[in-house]
Each structure stands twice: as C-alpha cells, then as structure tokens.
C-alpha cells in the first residue's frame, strides 16, 4: 500500500475538493460481477492499467482503481470471492452481465461543514459512516455519506478523507484516461439541482428517464459506461 498525500494539488470550492484533473469527481464506481474478470475486461476496453491489490478478508467487496488524475479514479468494484458478507449492493453486482456505473463521490474538506450547508439548502447528509474507527495506520480512514433527504444515485455521495491509503502501484500508473462527460438523468431533476448549485457542486441532473452514464477518452478511443433505469 502507498499512502497518498491528502489533497495533493487539489483546491477547495465551497468545501468541495476540486481534484487535479479539474473536476470535482473524487471517484466513480463501475460495478462488475467478478472483480478480476471485470478489471481484465476494462483494461482491454480502455488500453489502461488498473491497480488491483488482493481482496481484504473482512470487506464484502473487492475493487481496483483506474487513475483519472493524480487524485481521482474509477473504482472497479465486485463482490469479494473470499467471503459471503452481506451488503445491499452485493446482489446487484452479482447479477451484472457487463460493467455498469453505479455511484460517484465528491470529496469534502469537512463533512460537518458540508452537513450544515446542506441543511441550509433544505437537504441533509444521511447514512454518515466512519471507516477504520480503530485508526489502523496501514488502512484508509474516512467518513462517507449520502446527500439526502432521499437517496438518489444520480446525486453525489460524499467522502471526507482523513487518510487515504491507495492501492499498491496506483501512483506509478500513467494517467492515460480522461473523464470527458458525466451524464445524470432523473424525473425529479428540478428538485435536486438548486441544492447542488447551493452547495457549489458543478454537476447538474437533466430531467428525463432515470439514467447514469459517463465517458472516458482512453488509448483505445472513447469508452462509455452506462446504467439506464438506475433509481
């Protein structure tokens, strides 16, 4: 594991970290049914290398990281084959027949400050969870949460990195993929966008049938990851 310097080259905007590649995206999740096979498939699709450590015994998932900048990445995530720990996302991942985008995160400097700003906008921070409470120095320590009051995957999830221990070799991989679009659609977009604007979030949700997709420019050309019908 290599310890990442927190917010290396990043800037804050209304408490949201703007990462070194110019976007507010911290990481975006590409779900796969089998992590090892999914990583191989996405490497073949993109022509890029993905950092993948061995699975961690007590985690329900196993994931690799595709660099999108020095501080942000696409997380290729699937069920951990070494255990059967239950998690809400695990059954959905297990039935996928192709890689599918499922979540995206923005990093905030202070979850407490962001929570106050969300309340002022008529929203809330929900499902707030501290990871690595025992503070094992070899592991990442962070807080993650959702943007409420309702949980909608097109809205960004939130993360406050207290310490980010990235996958072995991640920072030695060349950044050869560039995020070119993040497209979010939801019937209630008009309800969510004023909150995103108030909080300083660049992203906007388009009104339409529920959908979530993003595109990368890669050594193999433009690659699109899509999830129509996402709720």
Descriptive key words:
disordered N terminus, 4 helices, 14 strands, alpha+beta, 231 residues, 7-stranded mixed beta sheet, 16% helix
Summarize the structure.
With 231 residues, the chain is an alpha+beta fold.
Strand content: 35-45%
* N-to-C SSE string, H for helix and E for strand: EEEEHEEHEHEEEEEHEE
Strand order in the largest sheet: 5-6-4-7-10-9-8
**Share of helical residues:** 10-25%
Stretches with pLDDT under 50, minimum 5 residues: 1-10
How are the SSEs placed, and which strands pair?
Elements: E1 2-3, E2 11-13, E3 16-18, E4 25-31, H1 35-46, E5 61-67, E6 73-79, H2 90-94, E7 100-107, H3 111-120, E8 124-131, E9 141-148, E10 157-163, E11 165-166, E12 178-185, H4 189-198, E13 211-218, E14 221-228
Parallel strand pairs: 4-6, 7-10
Antiparallel strand pairs: 1-11, 2-3, 4-7, 5-6, 8-9, 9-10, 12-13, 13-14
Structural overview:
With 231 residues, the protein is an alpha+beta fold. The chain contains four helices and 14 strands. The protein has helices spanning 35-46, 90-94, 111-120, 189-198; strands spanning 2-3, 11-13, 16-18, 25-31, 61-67, 73-79, 100-107, 124-131, 141-148, 157-163, 165-166, 178-185, 211-218, 221-228. The strands form four sheets. It has a seven-stranded mixed beta sheet. It has a three-stranded antiparallel beta sheet with strand order 12-13-14, with no helix packed on it. Strand 9 (141-148) and strand 10 form a beta hairpin. The longest helix has 12 residues, at 35-46. 35% of the residues are buried. Mean pLDDT is 91; it is low at 1-10.
């Amino acid at each position: 594991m290599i310890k990442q310097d927190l917010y290396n080259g990043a800037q804050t905007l209304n408490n949201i970290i703007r990462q070194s590649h110019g976007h507010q995206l911290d990481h975006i999740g590409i779900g796969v049914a089998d992590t090892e096979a999914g990583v191989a498939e996405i490497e073949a699709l993109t022509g890029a290398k993905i950092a993948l450590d061995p699975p961690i015994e007590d985690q329900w998932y196993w994931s690799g990281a595709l660099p999108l900048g020095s501080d942000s990445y696409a997380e290729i995530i699937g069920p951990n084959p070494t255990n059967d720990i239950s998690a809400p996302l695990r059954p959905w991942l297990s039935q996928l027949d192709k890689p599918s985008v499922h979540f995206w995160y923005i990093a905030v400097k202070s979850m407490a400050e962001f929570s106050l700003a969300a309340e002022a906008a008529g929203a809330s921070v929900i499902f707030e969870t501290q990871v690595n409470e025992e503070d094992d120095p070899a592991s990442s320590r962070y807080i993650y949460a959702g943007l409420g009051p309702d949980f909608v995957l097109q809205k960004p999830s939130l993360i406050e990195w207290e310490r980010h221990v990235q996958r072995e070799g991640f920072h030695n991989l060349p950044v050869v993929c560039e995020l070119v679009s993040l497209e979010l659609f939801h019937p209630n977009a008009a309800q969510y966008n004023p909150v995103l604007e108030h909080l300083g979030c660049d992203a906007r949700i388009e009104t339409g049938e529920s959908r979530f997709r993003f595109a990368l420019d890669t050594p193999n050309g433009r690659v699109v990851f899509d999830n129509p019908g996402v709720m």
